[in-house]
Amino acid sequence: DERIRHYAIDHPLFSSCGAGHIYCDDPPGRPFETDASKFALFSIAVAEAIRQGAFTDLEILHLHDWHAAFLLILRQYDPTYSALKSLRCVYSIHNLAIQGIRPFAGPESSLQGWFPKLAYERKRLADPDWSDCVNPVAAAIRLADSVHTVSPSYAAEILLPGDSASDIHGGERLDADLRAAKAEKRLFGILNGCEYPQPAAGEITDWPNLLRRMRALLPLWISRSDNLASAHYLATQALARLADTRPPMLITSVGRITEQKLGLMRQPTSKGVPALHAALAVLGDRGLMLMTGSGDPDYERFLCETMALHDNFIFLRGYSDELAEALYRLGDLFFMPSSFEPCGISQMLAMRAGQPCLVHAVGGLRDTVQDNANGFSFRAKTPQARAQAMVKTLQRALKMFLGNPADWQKLRKAAAAERFSWADSIDAYLRQLYRQE
């Protein structure tokens, strides 16, 4: 669209952890140290560009997550950037669990280190628990004209007290600030959208082609490291055992390997085994679960152990667009029991391809997957009860898939017919977030 202009800001500090790496892994005692300095620099660069008139005819400043929250601090307290006060500022929360907390002063990566002359109200920027630290997300929630989450259910969940409900929204300690924003009619939940292009004629159209592609991808991933990772070795062995005959049921999973995505799968059931292991025992020789992604080393090790113990589970540690699209297109059931989910895109992509999803009914998953209508969902009050419910829901799905093909086809058609339109989201942005007082 010729009406849209994209601007890029570049600086050597943005690549301090290597080209192409957006985030840096700092030591446990210094979380966000490197990234916070990068994003503080980015924010002041944007503020300076606005001050100098690099962007014309601005009305709205739409900021996303903690990465851009420093702009609201500069807008409020730095007189150099008073021009920002004429702009309506909207703040979007994509994941409340990541807040970028840093000290007010002391180390180089601190509010004083970034903005040494800034005069501010400490209580409006402080973390609720760590009074000597600035919490950019908390500050943004307090200072923005509108606060937005990426699904209606997540907007409701983050209002729940952190101590009792943080495991279903991932954002401890900020519920009081969010309730204040809600009372001031500044908090809105609007579901993200999904693109619906004409179906592409992918190269991977059946199980034998998928199997060949997976077997070809693994040596490529192995070649990128001097050492053979356990995940690649175990996956190579597992793929070699598979026949060209498609498994009766193919369960797929695509996503980041994080506690948010995998925590519930590792949660012990009442029998003391991880929920994923119990689910695979239920699946037995009636199906195969294929999971692809990478991330947290501890959870990757859990998946490797699962692969070593269960012949009906394969974890491919890596990512390929072609592979992901094939899994969305060829899978029978998409497995996404996230502990919390602000919105989620993987379930939308699977549904778009006509694959029903099995989800934990939280956040955006609750807003997109309806139990027994276009997929399967479950809820429970405690982590162990959720683990049990996840396994029982898989049993339910397996029973329908194997015993009632007609109902399964109705479910597939219903999933494929869903439309989560960006046009609807944009209309809500204009009406709720961008409205001028």
Features:
single chain, 437 residues, alpha/beta, 4-stranded parallel sheet, globular
Strand content: 5-15%
Runs with pLDDT <50, length 5+?
none
Structural class, please? alpha/beta
Share of helical residues: 40-55%
Q: What's the number of extended β-strand segments? A: 12
- First-residue to last-residue Cα separation: 29 Å
Shape: globular
Radius of gyration: 23 Å
Tally the helices: 19
Give the overall average pLDDT. 94
**Adjacency order of strands in the biggest sheet:** 9-8-7-10-11-12
Largest sheet: 6 strands, parallel
Description of the structure:
By secondary structure, the protein is of the alpha/beta class. 43% of the residues lie in helices and 12% in strands. The strands form 3 sheets. Strands 9-8-7-10-11-12 form a 6-stranded parallel β-sheet, sandwiched between helices. Strands 1-2-5-6 form a 4-stranded parallel β-sheet. A two-stranded antiparallel sheet has the order 3-4. Strand 11, helix 16 and strand 12 form a beta-alpha-beta unit. It is globular. The two termini are 29 Å apart. 42% of the residues are buried.
Can you give me a brief rundown of this structure?
With 437 residues, this protein is of the alpha/beta class. The protein has 19 helices and twelve strands.
Question: Layout of SSEs?
Answer:
Elements: H1 33-51, E1 60-64, H2 70-77, E2 88-93, E3 102-103, H3 111-114, H4 122-125, E4 133-134, H5 136-143, E5 146-149, H6 152-157, H7 162-165, H8 175-183, E6 187-189, H9 207-222, H10 230-241, E7 249-254, H11 259-266, H12 275-283, E8 287-293, H13 297-309, E9 313-317, H14 321-330, E10 333-336, H15 346-352, E11 357-360, H16 363-368, E12 376-378, H17 383-403, H18 405-417, H19 422-433
Helix pairs in contact: 1-2, 2-5, 9-10, 9-14, 10-13, 12-17, 14-15
